Amino acid sequence: MASVTLGLGLLSVIVWLVLLLGRDRFWLASERDDLPAPVPASWPSVTAIVPARDEADVVGRAVASLVAQDYPGAFDIILVDDSSSDGTAAIADRAGHASGRLQILRGQALAAGWTGKLWAVAQGVDHAGTDADYLLLTDADIAHAPDNVRNLVARAAADRLVLTSLMARLQCATLAERLLVPAFVYFFQMLFPFGAVNRPGPTAAAAGGCMLIDRAALARAGGIAAVRGAIIDDCAMGALMKRHGPIRLMLTNRAHSLRPYLSTAEIGAMIARSAYAQLRYSPLLLVGTLLGLGLVFVVPPVLALAAGGVGQVAGAVAWAMMILSFQPMLRFYRRSPLWGIALPLIALVYAYYTLVSAVQVWRGAGGLWKGRAQAMVGS
C-alpha cells in the first residue's frame, strides 16, 4: 500500500510540474487585451451580428452597450430575433432604434443540420452582405465597454488577424458563481492555452461572446456554414479561421456577461451542454477524462490528508502546486485566494456535470439550449 501511495504521489507531482512549467503556462492568465494597439490609418467598417432567443432580461443592456461604442468608422448592428417569445425584439428596438445603427431581422425557422445560434448568425451575416470589412459576432447577454470595438479593430488591423476573440468576464457574485466561474475559465485555459492559440500551430479556440472576424477571410473559409452543426461553435470557429490566418484569444475587462447564475445547477447546465461534445462523444475519452481529473485534482488532497510518509508529502506538494496555479485566475476575478484550497471539490463538480453531459446525449437531449436539444452525434 505504501508503494502505491508513493507512486501516486510522485506521479501527481510530476503531472503538476508539467502543468506549471509546460502548457504555455496557461495558469498565469497573462494573455490580455490591456495594452493599446496602434491606431490604423483609416478605420474599417464593422457590422455587429447579435443572435437573440428569449433574452428579454439582458438584451436591452447588451444592445445599448453596442450603440454606445465610440468607434470612429462605420459601425452597424444587426440583431437576429431567433423565434423569441418574450418580447426580445421589442426591447432591443427600444434600446437601439434612436441610434440609427440597429436593424432587427426576424429569423427563419431552424434549418436542418444547423444549431440554432449558428443559423441565426448565418442569417445576420448574409443580411450584412459584403459592405463590412469586419463582423463582430457577439451574444445578446454581453455588454461592451465603449472602447471595445475600437480596440478590437485596432489590434486586428495592426496584426492582420482574421479572428480576434475576447473571453468575456463572467459574473462572479453569487455563491455558485464564486465556486465555479473562475474555474470555468481556468479549465478552458488548461484545455486551450491562450499562448498556444495565439501563435502558429495546431491549437485553436475562441470565445463566442465576442469575436471580431475578417469578413473576407470568413468567406474564403466557407462562411458560417462551415461550422453549422458545431455545439462548441466558438472553438470550431477558431479552428476554422486559424487555417486562414493568425487568430488571437485574450482575457478582458472590456466585455462582460450580463447573465447571472443563481445556482450550481444553472452553471452545471452550461457545462453539460457542451462537455461531451468536447470529448467527441467518445465513451473512452469520457472515462479517460474522469480518471484524469481524479488523478490530477483528487489524489493530491486525499494523499495529503490520509496517507503517510513520502506519499503524504508528495500529495501535499502537488496540492500546493494546484493551489498556486489557481491564484492568477482568482485575482482576475477578485476572489479570495482561499478558493484555491477548494479546487479539488470544484473539479469533482465539473467531473459530475461532464458525466451528466454524456448521459443527456445518450438520452437524446444533448446540447440543450433554449428548449433545443442540438447534439448531432455522428453527423
Please describe what this structure looks like:
This protein has 379 residues and is an alpha/beta fold. It folds into two domains: 2-27 and 264-371, no CATH class; 31-257, Spore Coat Polysaccharide Biosynthesis Protein SpsA, Chain A (Alpha-Beta Complex), CATH 3.90.550. 48% of the residues lie in helices and 14% in strands. The chain is built from 13 helices and ten strands. The chain has helices at residues 2-21, 59-67, 88-96, 116-128, 148-159, 175-191, 194-197, 215-220, 233-242, 264-278, 283-306, 309-332, 343-362; strands spanning 46-52, 75-81, 102-106, 134-138, 142-144, 163-169, 210-214, 247-257, 368-369, 372-373. The strands form two sheets. An eight-stranded mixed beta sheet has the order 3-2-1-4-7-6-8-5, sandwiched between helices. A two-stranded antiparallel ribbon has the order 9-10. α2 (59-67) runs parallel beside α3 and α10 packs across α13 (343-362). The mean pLDDT is 94.
